[in-house]
C-alpha cells in the first residue's frame, strides 16, 4: 500500500472530523477513503479510530500515529520544496479560515490579489464564526478577530476592524432620533449570536471614555447577513462591521446612530502554524495578506468617515438652504434679513422621566444651530389637587439660570384665570416675560393645557424661536407625547 498517501488521508480525516469531509478535500470518493483507513489499520495491526453512530474518536494509538504522520508529511513536503525549483515549491493548496462577515466582505478582495500574484496556487477559504484550531482542522492560515485565545500559532497583527451602530433612515423617521446612549434600550436591537450577549453595548466617547449602554435584544441570528437585511429594512437597530455597511452608508440605506460615540474595534490578527520551517508558499501568502489587508480595511474606514463628514455637511447645507428660502434678500445692499418665528410651545408627556429625556433632545437639537433657539422653559406637573407645580429640580440642569430667575412655586390653579399664571416672571436674564404671558395665556390656552394634562402627566412650556416645527414635533411624538403652539406677540 502507499503508506504516505494513507497517512495523508488519515490526517485529513482527523482534522476534518469526518471521512466524507476529508474525501471532498482530497477529491476522492468516500468509499475509497474509508477503504484506505481500514487497510491502514490492518497494516498497522491496531485500531486508529473508535467509531460510533454519530462520530468517532482517536484511540491512544491513533493519537500517536496522527502526531507522527504530521511530522513525516511535513518533512516530506520540505524535502520536495528544497530540491524543487521555486515554481514547483509554490504549487499546492493553501487552506485559509476566516469569520463569516470579515470573510465575505474583505477576504475575497485579498485572495484575488493573492491569486493574481501566484496563479499556480490553489486556495480554499473556510468560513466559520467559531475559533478555528489550525492544527486539528488542517488550516494553513487563519484570520482571527478579537481575542487571540489559546493555541499553538504564530500571530501577526494586521490592524483593527471598526464597528458602526446603524439604523435605516426610515426607522428613525418613524420612531424618532436617538440622541443619548440611554435611549438605545427603547429600540429593538438585532445582533449575531455570541455578540453583546449581556445586553450591554460598550461605547467609547471621543475622549476615550468607555461606558456601557443597555440594549434590548429583539432578534438573534447565526449569520451576519440576515441581521444586515433586517436593519436595512427598518426592523430595528444594530452593529455592523465597517466593511459590511460602507456601501449602505454611502447609498443612504443606513445612517450612523450616536456618531459622537464609537464602538471599540476588533483586533485583527493573521495566524499560521508553528513549524520549524514554514512552507515557502505559506510564507509568501502571509506576506501578501499582511500587506494588502490593512489597505483594504483603511479604505473602508476612510469611506465610513467620509460618509459621516458628508452627512454633517449635508445637514448644514440643508439648514443654510432653508434659511435662504425663508429669508428676504436685499439685492441692493446684498444683505439678508432672517427672523425665526417666536412660539410658545407646550409639549405634554406621560412622566417626568420621559419629559427629562425629551428635554435633553431639545437641548441637543438647539446646540446643532439648525434653527431652534430656546429663550426659556419650565417643566410643570399636575398634582392630585389639580395644581400645576413647577419641577424646578428637574428642569434646572436644562435651562440653568433662566429657571433660576423664575419666582414663585405654582404656575396657577387648573382652569384658573389667565392672570393667575403671572406668578412667574423673569428677571434680567430674559425668558417668559410678563408681557408675553399676558398676551398669550388667555382662557383658551389655559383650557387647552388643562385638557391635555391629567394627574401625573408632565408638560414642557417653552418660549422658543424655530424655523420649522418638524424636528421638535418629531422629538415629542417619538416619546409618545403631544404638542401644540401659540405665536408670541
UniProtKB/TrEMBL annotation:
<protein>
    <submittedName>
        <fullName>HTH-type transcriptional regulator ArgP</fullName>
    </submittedName>
</protein>
<dbReference type="InterPro" id="IPR036388">
    <property type="entry name" value="WH-like_DNA-bd_sf"/>
</dbReference>
<dbReference type="InterPro" id="IPR009200">
    <property type="entry name" value="DUF1269_membrane"/>
</dbReference>
<dbReference type="Pfam" id="PF00126">
    <property type="entry name" value="HTH_1"/>
</dbReference>
<dbReference type="InterPro" id="IPR000847">
    <property type="entry name" value="LysR_HTH_N"/>
</dbReference>
<feature type="domain" description="HTH lysR-type">
    <location>
        <begin position="1"/>
        <end position="59"/>
    </location>
</feature>
<dbReference type="InterPro" id="IPR036390">
    <property type="entry name" value="WH_DNA-bd_sf"/>
</dbReference>
<keyword id="KW-0805">Transcription regulation</keyword>
<comment type="similarity">
    <text>Belongs to the LysR transcriptional regulatory family.</text>
</comment>
<keyword id="KW-0238">DNA-binding</keyword>
<dbReference type="InterPro" id="IPR005119">
    <property type="entry name" value="LysR_subst-bd"/>
</dbReference>
<dbReference type="InterPro" id="IPR058163">
    <property type="entry name" value="LysR-type_TF_proteobact-type"/>
</dbReference>
<dbReference type="Pfam" id="PF03466">
    <property type="entry name" value="LysR_substrate"/>
</dbReference>
<dbReference type="Pfam" id="PF06897">
    <property type="entry name" value="DUF1269"/>
</dbReference>
<keyword id="KW-0804">Transcription</keyword>
Amino acid at each position: 500500500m502507499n503508506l504516505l498517501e494513507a497517512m495523508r488521508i488519515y490526517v485529513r480525516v482527523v482534522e476534518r472530523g469526518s471521512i466524507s469531509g476529508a474525501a471532498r478535500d482530497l477529491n476522492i470518493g468516500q468509499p475509497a477513503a474509508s477503504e484506505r483507513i481500514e487497510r491502514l489499520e490492518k497494516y498497522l495491526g491496531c485500531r486508529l479510530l473508535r467509531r460510533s453512530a454519530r462520530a468517532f474518536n482517536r484511540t491512544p494509538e491513533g493519537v500517536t500515529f496522527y502526531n507522527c504522520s504530521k511530522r513525516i508529511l511535513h518533512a516530506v513536503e520540505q524535502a520536495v520544496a528544497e530540491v524543487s525549483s521555486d515554481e514547483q515549491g509554490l504549487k499546492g493548496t493553501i487552506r485559509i479560515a476566516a469569520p463569516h462577515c470579515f470573510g465575505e466582505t474583505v477576504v475575497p478582495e485579498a485572495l484575488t490579489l493573492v491569486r493574481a500574484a501566484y496563479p499556480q496556487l490553489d486556495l480554499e477559504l473556510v468560513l466559520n464564526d467559531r475559533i478555528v484550531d489550525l492544527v486539528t482542522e488542517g488550516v494553513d492560515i487563519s484570520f482571527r478577530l478579537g481575542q487571540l485565545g489559546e493555541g499553538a500559532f504564530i500571530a501577526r497583527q494586521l490592524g483593527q476592524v471598526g464597528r458602526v451602530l446603524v439604523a435605516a433612515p426610515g426607522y428613525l423617521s418613524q420612531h424618532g432620533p436617538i440622541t443619548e446612549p440611554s435611549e438605545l434600550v427603547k429600540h429593538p436591537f438585532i445582533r449575531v449570536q455570541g455578540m453583546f450577549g449581556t445586553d450591554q453595548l460598550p461605547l467609547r466617547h471621543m475622549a476615550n471614555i468607555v461606558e456601557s449602554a443597555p440594549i434590548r435584544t429583539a432578534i438573534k441570528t447565526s449569520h451576519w447577513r440576515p441581521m444586515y437585511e433586517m436593519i436595512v429594512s427598518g426592523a430595528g437597530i444594530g452593529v455592523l462591521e465597517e466593511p459590511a455597511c460602507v456601501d449602505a452608508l454611502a447609498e443612504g440605506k443606513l445612517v450612523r446612530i450616536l456618531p459622537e460615540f464609537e464602538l471599540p474595534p476588533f483586533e485583527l490578527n493573521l495566524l499560521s502554524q508553528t513549524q520549524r520551517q514554514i512552507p515557502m508558499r505559506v510564507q509568501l501568502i502571509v506576506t501578501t495578506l499582511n500587506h494588502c489587508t490593512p489597505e483594504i480595511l483603511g479604505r473602508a474606514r476612510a469611506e465610513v468617515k467620509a460618509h459621516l463628514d458628508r452627512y454633517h455637511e449635508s445637514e448644514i447645507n440643508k439648514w443654510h438652504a432653508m434659511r435662504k428660502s425663508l429669508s428676504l434678500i436685499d439685492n441692493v445692499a446684498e444683505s439678508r434679513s432672517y427672523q425665526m418665528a417666536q412660539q410658545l410651545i407646550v409639549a405634554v408627556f406621560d412622566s417626568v422621566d420621559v419629559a427629562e429625556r425629551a428635554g435633553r433632545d431639545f437641548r441637543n437639537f438647539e446646540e446643532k444651530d439648525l434653527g431652534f433657539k430656546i429663550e426659556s422653559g419650565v417643566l410643570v406637573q399636575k398634582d392630585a389637587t389639580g395644581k400645576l407645580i413647577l419641577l424646578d429640580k428637574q428642569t434646572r440642569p436644562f435651562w440653568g439660570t433662566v429657571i433660576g430667575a423664575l419666582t414663585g412655586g405654582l404656575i396657577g390653579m387648573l382652569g384658573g384665570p389667565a392672570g393667575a399664571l403671572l406668578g412667574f416672571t423673569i428677571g434680567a436674564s430674559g425668558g417668559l416675560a410678563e408681557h408675553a404671558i399676558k398676551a398669550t395665556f388667555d382662557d383658551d390656552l389655559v383650557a387647552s393645557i388643562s385638557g391635555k394634562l391629567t394627574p401625573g402627566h408632565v408638560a414642557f412650556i417653552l418660549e422658543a424661536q424655530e424655523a420649522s416645527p418638524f424636528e421638535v414635533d418629531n422629538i415629542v411624538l417619538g416619546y409618545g407625547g403631544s404638542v401644540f403652539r401659540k405665536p408670541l406677540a
